């Protein structure tokens, strides 16, 4: 796999993790 593709993949997975945590924080604060 190309290096840039691997970097993009890791960046996407990290961003997805941050998004999930942020959504969970919003849900818990809204309750």
Overview of the structural elements:
- With 31 residues, the chain is an all-alpha fold.
- The chain has one domain.
- 90% of the residues lie in helices and 0% in strands.
- The protein has one helix at residues 3-30.
- The radius of gyration is 14 Å and the shape is rod-shaped.
- The mean pLDDT is 90.
Total discrete domains = 1
The whole-number mean of residue pLDDT values reads: 90
* Poorly predicted sequence stretches spanning 5 or more consecutive residues: none
Distance between the termini: 44 Å
Which secondary-structure class do the elements indicate? mainly alpha
Helix content: over 70%
Query: Total strand count, please?
Result: 0
**Radius of gyration (Å):** 14 Å
> What is the tally of helical segments?
1
Tell me the series of helices and strands, N- to C-terminal: H
Bulk shape: rod-shaped
Task: Report the portion of residues in β strands.
Answer: under 5%
Largest β sheet strand count, sense and barrel closure: none
């Amino acid at each position: 796999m190309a290096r840039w593709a691997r970097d993009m993949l890791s960046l996407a997975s990290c961003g997805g993790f941050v998004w999930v945590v942020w959504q969970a924080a919003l849900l818990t604060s809204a309750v």
